[in-house]
Amino acid sequence: MLYPEISNIKKSNRILKILMLVSVAISVILLIINAFVKPDLHWSLLFIVGIIYIWITTIYSIKKNVNIASHVMLQMLCVSILIILIDMIIGYKGWSLIIGIPIIAIIANLTMLILTIISRKKYVKYVIYQAIIFLFTLGLLVLIIVGVIKINTLYIIAFGISIMSMIMSFSLCGKQIIDELNKRLHV
């Protein structure tokens, strides 16, 4: 006889496999409908990309012991890629870079700032992810310098929040960060 935990894991895995098959079936049905109804507009791809994103998020979220800051960072990267793909699928208009990416950067930086304020003792576990989010936001500056995008209010807000978040983190948890770096780097 199986223990309840193992039984529940097997049941959960079976349910996930069934839902995965349903997702594949829905994707195929959408492609067929799209081919017959409006073959020149690939709207079904938007739904399929959304389904893939949902599965990536679901599988990642099911894992236990997930560091919330790593989850924020992964979501930021995945959603950024997703909206760029959506923008390209519907005939690239640039809204993903002009509006979408700065909003995602703002949300990720605000989330990290809130995490820092709420859980100062656990912050050391979050610092590397906040640094990656900070670098992602500053990376947008490269797109502005190269001329791919023009600076706008959302980018200014994103940069401001990113810098404020890093300053706040170091002012609240600077000693712990330095202690942790000394421990990990054996300084």
Explain the layout of strands and helices.
Layout: H1 4-37, H2 43-62, H3 68-89, H4 95-118, H5 123-146, H6 153-185
What's this model, at a glance?
This protein is mainly α and 187 residues long. It contains 6 helices and no strands. It has helices at residues 4-37, 43-62, 68-89, 95-118, 123-146, 153-185.
Question: What features would you describe in this structure?
Answer:
This protein is mostly helical and 187 residues long. The protein has 6 helices and no strands. The protein has helices spanning 4-37, 43-62, 68-89, 95-118, 123-146, 153-185. The radius of gyration is 21 Å and the shape is flat. The model is unreliable at 1-5 (pLDDT under 50).
Q: Whole-Å distance between the termini?
A: 53 Å
Radius of gyration: 21 Å
Task: Count helical runs.
Answer: 6
The average pLDDT is 80
Bin the helical content: over 70%
Task: Give start-end ranges of low-pLDDT stretches.
Answer: 1-5
Report the sheet-strand fraction: under 5%
Shape: flat
What is the number of beta strands? Answer: 0
Category from helices, strands and their pairing: mainly alpha
Order of helices and strands, N to C?
HHHHHH
Biggest sheet record: none
Which features does this protein show?
187 residues; mainly alpha; 6 helices; 84% helix
